[in-house]
Write a structure and sequence with these properties.
25 strands, single chain, Aldehyde Dehydrogenase, Chain A, domain 2, 38% helix, binds 2-aminohexanedioic acid, seven-stranded mixed beta sheet, alpha/beta, six-stranded mixed beta sheet, Aldehyde Dehydrogenase, Chain A, domain 1
């Protein structure tokens, strides 16, 4: 792999600026070494943004908002269409960069770029469908309707596990809504961000628009992140990350009565019924647990399996785990790459210890792979453990490829288990039994933002609204009508009569 050539194509340098507001700024923050989880080497460096750089970025974004928000929405859609075309051209290279920087396998890296392409397509159509309602007024000669206006400068905070896609689905929607965005990516994966911003900016500047429509600040959460969430000039923060991070953002943004879209931890369960097609259940669980090495917020964390098929399912799942090839994520035979860093391995090992302490047992895997073949990265076998749903460790999201297996007798009992965790992102049932499936989908079924039938908990499409309930944060991003969070709703009354009728029949003739 010729990394220099890859970087040259994508506009990534050996030392990159960590702030973009139309130009790459000479930043004042510390130098950040970007490690490659594949072999522990340093991929490149980023000069992070300091407080002054941050301020410049926001000021340029405010100016850009003045211009961008005045462009007709379908015209903004046309620019987003061109950005989607540009991402199509670099899908392979960007997918490789995601893989190198984050450690997910190449097909999943490519999949992330495909999500950007897809959301751009979605946003193009949306740019002509930002509909408001008209209402019948109770007053004569009065027209009442609602309209949707651009909101302003939006802050996007993204996590290491999706270095490209989460920015994509926020940026594309925000852009057609007339907003401009300032992206603070995870400091573990800033190079993909540099590459994505370079591509978006190329299209914006070719069309004569300011690059500050899509800005970037790379910097510490404690410094730059704190500035961003506390900033009155930023009416909306859309953030993906941990529950503690979300709590902090909710507090700070709430205090200034700003808006936030929070997409936080999941603790996603799969119910495998005795009426399931076990073949597809094993495949769906396999993708949900092994995909992205268990580092998706939608990864399958808990398996609730009917007692009559429990042993059979367990044996089939362990057999499929034994076939998992772990290694370099760019090798097409490999199904699971490294974890992001040593801390992630330590967290997984601690979870395994926790399960045992609480009375569970490890059924398979969890060994750290440290032989020379593994290039010095953080490779670990995926783990299956037997555990009870109420264990403290099972109630927590461990962001690693560990899954907890438990039995049930009655579907009501399975549903109660599935819902009795603090998080509420994604859920699945494998069953061909109509009543079970409908119960799962009913108001007394899954309490999650996403409910799947005979499909994995992870791998949601961009067309639906993405997000979850309870401690997952309640936000919705991506498709459906999630765009409404990115705009300002205005209810309008126009009195075209020659009198001044008041609502509620009030007569107010004055003294
Ligand atoms: C995340 O892990 O933060 O549904 C997002 C999925 C992906 C998105 C995951 N489309 O698995």
């Amino acid at each position: 792999m010729d990394i220099d050539k890859l970087f040259a194509v994508l506009g990534v340098k050996a030392i990159n600026s960590g702030a973009f507001n139309g130009v790459w700024l000479k930043t004042s923050g510390d130098v950040l070494d970007v490690h490659c989880p594949v072999d522990g080497s340093i991929l490149a460096r980023v000069n992070q943004a300091g407080a002054g750089d941050y301020d410049l970025v926001i000021k340029s974004a405010e100016k850009a908002f003045g211009i961008w928000s005045s462009v007709p929405a379908p015209k903004r859609g046309d620019i987003v269409r061109q950005i989607g075309l540009e991402f199509r051209k670099y899908k392979d290279e960007l997918g490789t960069l995601v893989s190198l920087e984050m450690g997910k396998i190449k097909v999943e890296g490519d999949g992330e770029i495909q999500e950007i392409i897809d959301i751009c397509d979605f946003a193009v159509g949306l740019s002509r469908q930002l509909y408001g309602l008209t209402m019948h007024s109770e007053r004569p000669y009065n027209r009442m309707y609602e309209q949707w206006h651009p909101l302003g400068v939006l802050g996007l905070i993204t996590s290491f596990n999706f270095p490209a896609a989460v920015w994509g689905w926020n940026f594309a929607i925000a852009a057609v809504c007339g907003d401009v965005t300032v992206w603070k990516p995870s400091s573990k994966v800033p190079l993909t961000a540099v590459a994505c911003i370079t591509i978006a900016n190329r299209v914006l500047s070719e069309n004569g628009f300011p690059g500050a429509v899509a800005s970037l600040v790379v910097g510490r959460g404690k410094e730059i992140g704190e500035h961003l969430i506390a900033d009155h000039r930023v009416p909306l923060i859309s953030a993906t990350g941990s529950i503690p991070m979300g709590r902090r953002i909710a507090r700070v943004v709430g205090e200034r009565l700003g808006r936030s879209i929070l997409e936080l931890g999941g603790n996603n369960a799969v119910i495998v019924s005795r009426h399931a097609d076990l073949d597809i259940a094993v495949k769906g669980v396999f993708f949900g647990t092994i995909g992205t090495a268990g580092q998706r917020c939608t990864s399958t964390r808990r398996l609730i399996v009917h007692e009559s098929i429990y042993d059979d399912f367990k044996d089939q799942l362990i057999a499929s785990y034994k076939r998992v090839k772990i290694g370099n994520p760019l090798d097409p035979r490999v199904a699971m790459g490294p974890l992001i860093d040593k801390d992630a391995v330590a967290v997984m090992r601690a979870a395994m210890k926790g399960v045992i302490e609480e009375g569970g047992r490890i059924l398979y895997g969890g060994n750290v792979l440290a032989t020379e073949d593994y290039l010095g990265g953080c490779y670990i076998e995926p783990c299956i453990a037997e555990a009870e749903n109420h264990y403290r460790i099972v109630q927590d999201e461990t962001f690693a490829p560990i899954v907890y297996l438990t039995k049930y007798k009655l579907i009501e009992e399975a549903l109660a288990m599935q819902n009795s965790v603090p998080q509420g992102l994604s859920s699945s049932i494998f069953s061909h039994h109509l009543r079970e499936v409908e119960l799962f989908l009913s108001h007394s079924g899954s309490d999650c933002g996403i409910a799947n039938v005979n499909s994995s908990t992870s791998g949601a499409e961009i067309g639906g609204a993405f997000g979850g309930e309870k401690q997952t944060g309640g936000g919705r991003e991506s498709g459906s009508d999630a765009w409404k969070y990115y705009m300002r709703r205005q209810t309008t009354n126009i009195n075209w009569g020659s009198d001044l009728p008041l609502a509620q029949g009030i007569r107010f003739d004055g003294p």
